[in-house]
Amino acid sequence: MSKARIELPPKLIPVFSGQARYRGAHGGRGSAKTRSFALMTAVRAYMFAEAGVSGVILSGREYMNSLEESSMEEIKQAIRSTPWLDAYFDIGEKFIRTKNRRVSYVFCGLRHNLDSIKSKARILIAWIDEAENVSEVAWQKLAPTVREAGSEIWVTWNPEKDGSPTDKRYRKTPPPGSKIVELNYTDNPWFPAVLEEERLSDRERLDDQTYAWIWDGAYRENSEAQILSGKYRVAEFDLPEFDGPYFGIDWGFSQDPTAGVRLAIQDQRLYVEYEAGKVGLENDDIAKFMIDRLPGIEQHTVRADSARPETISHVKSTGGGIRPAIPRIEGVEKWKGSVEDGIAHLRSYKEIIIHPRCTKFLHEARTYSYKVDRLTGDVLADIVDKNNHYIDATRYALGPLIKQRNAAMGLMIPKRLLQGR
Asked: What is the pLDDT of residues 308-321, one digit of tens each?
């Protein structure tokens, strides 16, 4: 049996391996997800035809008024880029089919052509690209239409709304038999230089939320709910002079990472220089893990969550010389409202500058949010207790500064009240 080589982003190899009813990928621009799925529809069409199976590959989008709005051109380019596939298919201006005519492509808009989809005989694979805006009704009608034994539904999309029908169905609670991954430009081994230039330009000129949506596969969140909205940006930096460094650690649990940060302050700007984090980090390994990733942590004062004094004691000790230690680690002081005071302190900086290597802190900066009323969409005062491990470590690191600022504000209030009487 002859073998053919297909190149895919490594992250997609498990998606297309083995049996699955649903396969998919979501993420930002430049990830190669559309081209990869287009290529794999052709590979599967080849496999079906060679096995004597007849049917159609349905390529759909929510809206499609003409073939120019379909994925036809992507599929043509994918086939033509692979010589053995190019030799196997007939490609015309308005059709793609195997030369033995067992398998052909059908292109369809789901919004206006759902009823006609039902009449398409033997749908082997339904690939829905740009699926973010597909309605729940469309999904409900499509799924039972793809009913041949061994048939599959493939989904690719750039997320936009947290809770969209596609998001709920295939990302939040994927159905049984799903192989779906997040795929971004960082997962594309062939990410082109021209897009890298565009990405770097966008990082400089766009607000981070827009950048994250375009390139990192993030939602277009309600920016009013984001606690650090408008306060941070991503940039490389080298600080010859600064206040600090300041170190903080938030202890993890079974599902949460033990998270550490190294910070610096210059010209009323907070710089996030390094981060370190891992889920399931054993107490014996914490000190070495942090020392290897947060330069200088063993030489400076480190403030950690005071809720775990036994962990602080363990990390401070060398265990009789058998492990590294962080000798100047101490529990941070907490008080009623310390979380809110910490947030106010972070927002008091001119800006928070995050080094590109601090990807987990950046994720939290984008997602740490206030609660939103389910019915009205109003932003509430309560804080959502998630996406905050590295931010909590930052609050701990800056604990004395937060307390000083709080005390200064406390001195100012009575004076103003007295002046108003």
From this structure: 999 999 999 988 88
The residue whose two tokens read 């209030």 is 413
At 99, list the tokens. 């030369």
Percent of the chain with pLDDT over 70: 91
pLDDT digits 0-9 by tens, 249-278 = 999 987 899 999 999 999 999 999 999 999
Residue keyed to tokens 């230089």: 193
Please give the pLDDT value at position 379. 86
Q: Is the pLDDT of residue 149 over 50?
A: yes
Torsional sign, CA 171, 5, 95, 190: positive
CA angle 214-143-161, nearest 5°?
25
Residue pair 27/182 in contact (Cβ under 8 Å)? The answer is yes
Contacts of 277 (CB under 8 A, 6+ apart): 252, 257, 258, 259, 260, 360, 389, 390
pLDDT of residue 320: 83
Give residue 130's region: left, alpha or beta (phi > 0; psi -120 to 50).
left
Number of H helices, E strands in the chain: 14, 17
Confirm whether pTM is higher than 0.90.
no
Task: Give the ranges where 168-266 is alpha helix by DSSP (H).
Answer: 193-205, 208-215
Mean pLDDT of all residues belonging to the chain:
89
| Closest alpha carbon to 21 in 123, 149, 151 | 151
Helix (H) / strand (E) containing 312: helix 309-316
Q: At the topology level of CATH, where does 11-187 sit?
A: Rossmann fold (3.40.50)
Q: Tell me the domain boundaries of the chain.
A: 11-187, 221-408
CATH architecture of 221-408: 2-Layer Sandwich (3.30)
Phi, psi dihedral angles at 300 (to 5 degrees): -125, 170
